[in-house]
Amino acid sequence: MKYRPEIDGLRMIAVMAVIIYHAEFAWKDGFLLEGGFFGVDVFFVISGFLITTLIINEYQTTSRFSLKRFYERRARRILPALFTVMLVSLPFGWIYLLPDQLTDLSKSQIASLLFGSNFYWLKSLQEYGVESGLLKPFLHTWSLAIEE
Predict the structure, then answer these.
(1) SS3 of 31, please?
(2) For residue range 1-57, what is the model confidence (pLDDT) as tens digits?
């Protein structure tokens, strides 16, 4: 697949929507872009498009699709960044979190590695966007789990 600059433009719009949503800029009687989930929706659409395009291209060129090869490529792209965030988070967690919070951090890291963090956060009844989520750096990995 050739480079598609319009996809980068959509990504930029999605990133800005998410940043504005999380920054909670005051606007009139509420916040600017209260529906910041729009950015997440755009990311899901882009991911679906790119993944589907990869699958179709592989099938058209080889007359088959390898799920194993697909996940190998995905792991090479996602896991290095995830491992880096995990390694950086651990010392900060050790210093700043209480024992129960440190246990939650470890459990959320395991759930993230297994791409099951959406189920973990549902089970732990942690609501996305609440103040208590500030000490849960892997709360954002729910979207990776949804994609899987």
Answers:
(1) strand
(2) 688 899 999 999 888 888 887 777 777 787 777 766 788 889 899 999 999 998 999
As a whole number of angstroms, the distance between CA 69 and CA 55 comes to 11
- Find the farthest-apart pair of alpha carbons in the chain and give their distance in angstroms, rounded: 56
Provide Rg for the chain, Cα atoms: 18
DSSP 3-state of 130: coil
Q: Which residues of 51-84 are buried (b: 16+ CB within 10 A; e: fewer)?
A: eeeeeeeeeeeeeeeeeeeeeeebeeeeeeebee
Q: Is 141 exposed, middle or buried (0-12, 13-18, 19+ CB in 10 A)?
A: buried
What is the pTM assigned to this prediction? 0.72
Tally the residues of the chain. Answer: 148
